[in-house]
Amino acid sequence: MHTENTRKRFLVGSGKAIITPKLGTRLCGYPTNRFAASIHDDLTATAIVVSDGAVSAALVTVTVCSVPAPICQRITKLVEEKTGIKHLIFSATHTHSGPPLNSVPGWGEADSSYIEEIFLPGVVKAICDAAETMEEARMGIGQIETRTGINRRAIRENGTVSLGRNPHGPYDPRMRVISFVSAVDEKKALGTIIHFGAHGTAAGGPYPESPVTRDWSGVMTDRIEWMTDAPCVFLNGAIGDVAPRDFSRRKKSGERILNTIEQAMEVGGMAAVDAAEAYNRITSYFTPCVAVNTGDIHLTYEPLPSVEEAKTNYEKLAQAALNSPMKTYERNRWQKVIEAAGKEPETGLSYRQTLVKIGPVVFVPHPFEIFTMISLRLDEFSPVEYTLSMSNANGTNGYLPNKEEIARGGYEIWSSRYRGAYLLTEDADTELINQNLALIREMEEQ
User: Fold this and answer.
1) Which of the four pLDDT bands, split at 50, 70 and 90, describes residue 3?
2) How far are the Cα atoms of 88, 126, 191 from residue 55, in angstroms, in the given order?
3) pLDDT at 6 over 80
4) How far apart are CA 221 and CA 231, in angstroms?
5) What average pLDDT does the chain have?
6) pLDDT > 70? residue 205
7) Distance between CA atoms of residues 240 and 378, nearest Å
8) Residue 375 and residue 172: Cα distance in Å, rounded?
9) 14-57: per-residue pLDDT in tens?
10) How much is the pLDDT for 206?
11) For 171, which of 84, 135, 157, 379 is 20 to 30 Å away at the CA?
12) Model confidence pLDDT, tens digit, residues 326-363
């Protein structure tokens, strides 16, 4: 049941810009020797702006791996100066076939020229275009269960975890499609949002020359844009432990198949069929209310390890780090511990949260690659009918696993434990959920 907006207007506008890098650009997400040899499909920035005449917000997606919080903040400031819109949710689709926007020890530096010359201007243009095209609108919601994703934390016979496919692991199959149409003519689409969660890694691979691509999600959004003649925003959900459900990694002979652009198109085709079906299930439109709530999220840190432990590990990794991105990453962590030891202790990671609610849907950005159970638990206890969490939104701080998965280890746990000097406590998932629930409930009471 949807509450009609009888007090204020509901306005929607959309915009889109090309943010494709130049050929030869280093690509993000795998070892540093991958460079753009061709352009399979253009990278894009897509925005939908909503307003009730008093409160306005922008929902933006960019088809890159991740975007650091300082860049998100720069864009928010530029957009506010140009349009007056100060509430922004900024989501990265997490394709591993685009340029790097943040520096990661062992994996290389951010591409500053791309950021300044292509990325920033393109994103700001998409949002400003959306703001300029706003008109009276109505909203519809469709949902379907999709097989586009699968849990990727494969459990070996000895109980350890590797990157692979785990058909028994947590995975949220719900794909939501939100359509905005003209209040005057419901046949005129103004923009669409798709929400679902899976890594953008179907096309990536450890080979030196790779194509630039939005990966599987680009096929899906292209299909909806073809159907509607309006921009489509993809907001990637809980991806920390979810891979695209691509075809078998090995032949019967045992030969391993690397991820390919053909594989990304295959996964994208599955997603496109499901998204189109969810869109076609929308049978009614309504005029929703718009609300925004902001607040601070604070996740607690564990105490620092001793300086002696840090120095010992730092020296042990000296030689190994010369040829291994992962060992470089680990060594950098111990260096950060040594540097932090002489400073005032930090208590936790804090960031400013922005929630946007449109009718029965609340969008919850997380500056992490969150695990599925975090999203499911937040949704279960939220008073809002559709509580849609996003990964790599309004910043990026690596993986955030739920407590139950930490003990098993694996790549994601290793990555989260070596990202910085301080580690989040094992209860960070519950802190994240409860603090976001408080902001959602506060919004509901207003």
Assistant:
1) very low
2) 12, 19, 19
3) no
4) 8
5) 93
6) no
7) 15
8) 9
9) 999 999 999 999 998 777 778 899 999 999 999 999 999 999 99
10) 56
11) 157
12) 888 899 999 999 999 989 999 999 999 999 999 999 99
Q: What confidence tens digit (pLDDT) does each residue in 294-318 have?
A: 999 999 999 999 999 999 999 999 8
Q: Counting Cβ atoms within 10 Å, is residue 157 exposed (0-12), middle (13-18) or buried (19+)? A: exposed
Report the predicted TM-score, pTM, of the whole model to 2 decimal places.
Answer: 0.95
Domain boundaries, the chain: 11-290+352-409, 304-344
Structure tokens at 339: 């540097």
Closest CA to 185 of 233, 250, 230, 126: 230
Q: How far apart are CA 89 and CA 131, in angstroms?
A: 15
